[in-house]
Amino acid sequence: MSEETKKQETMDDYMNEINASFSNFRDDDMLIWDKLAQMQEDKTDFEVTVEGIVKGGVIAYVEGIRAFIPVSQLALHYVENPEDYLKKTLTVRVTEVDEQENRLILSAKEVLRDKAQAEKLEKIQNIKVGTIVEGTVESLQTYGAFIDLGNGISGLVHISQISEKRIKSPKAVLSVGDPVKAKVIKNEDGKISLSMKALAEPQEEKTEEPDFELPKSEEISTSLGSLLKNLKIDG
């Protein structure tokens, strides 16, 4: 075999190896995008580190894929300076995957919101029926009043549970901002029902005094004489 043939075979083998490498790289890349799509479907939470700041958000990398986190998705509150998040680790979730456009969008806000809702639900579940609570009138509706109990928790006092007297509107008794005390009468599906009427002091029953006529002095003397008459004293 000539040196030229050996050289040609060596070059062909080299090109085959390069093509195989690129093929494997493409296959691995496709697997990564499939994995990201599955993570989006499963709402998988994972951690990333913010590696850069760009217009409208920040940049992180997932499995070597460049990902974008919009500034509106960095936190529950408004973020004025995205630069504060540089090199910080965030727990995020995939919200958009597009392999054709090479677009990967993440959100930390969704994770934080779900966590906050779970914590709120746990607090609500810990409020037992029969508990006396204090709060502030948050809003008035035709059907009742919403009471702010603190920690992001509200309860509803239905119009029938506001007063012992029948009222046409909650505004007849309450105003927004009024402090109130109420009793928990129902806690179901994350909704708290309250009653102010249940804490109203029951009206005291009037006790009727028996008719009593004071006897005249003569009648008292006669009765006393009758008693002494029948009394025997041994000498």
How are the elements arranged and paired?
Elements (H helix, E strand, L loop, with lengths): L2 H40 L2 E5 L2 E3 L2 E6 L2 E6 L18 E10 L4 E5 L1 H17 L6 E10 L2 E7 L2 E6 L20 E10 L2 E5 L21 H13 L6
Parallel strand pairs: 9-11
Antiparallel strand pairs: 1-5, 2-3, 3-4, 5-6, 7-8, 7-10, 8-9, 10-11
Detailed description of the structure:
There is one protein chain. This protein has 235 residues and is α+β, with helices and mostly antiparallel strands. It has three helices and eleven strands, in the order αββββββαβββββα. It has a five-stranded mixed beta barrel. A three-stranded antiparallel sheet has the order 1-5-6. The longest helix is centred in the first third of the chain and has 40 residues, at 3-42. It is elongated, with a radius of gyration of 41 Å. The model is unreliable at 20-27, 203-210 and 217-222 (pLDDT under 50).
Labels describing this entry:
11 strands, 235 residues, 3-stranded antiparallel β-sheet, 3 helices, alpha+beta, 31% strand, 5-stranded mixed β-barrel, elongated
Radius of gyration: 41 Å
Residues in β-strands, percent: 25-35%
What kind of sheet is the major sheet?
5 strands, mixed, barrel
Write down the overall geometry: elongated
Provide a count of the helices: 3
Q: Distance N terminus to C terminus?
A: 167 Å
Instruction: List segments where confidence is low: pLDDT < 50 over at least 5 consecutive residues.
Output: 20-27, 203-210, 217-222
Helical percent range?
25-40%
Structural class: alpha+beta
Q: In total, how many beta strands?
A: 11
Strand order of the largest sheet: 7-8-9-11-10
Give the mean pLDDT. Answer: 83
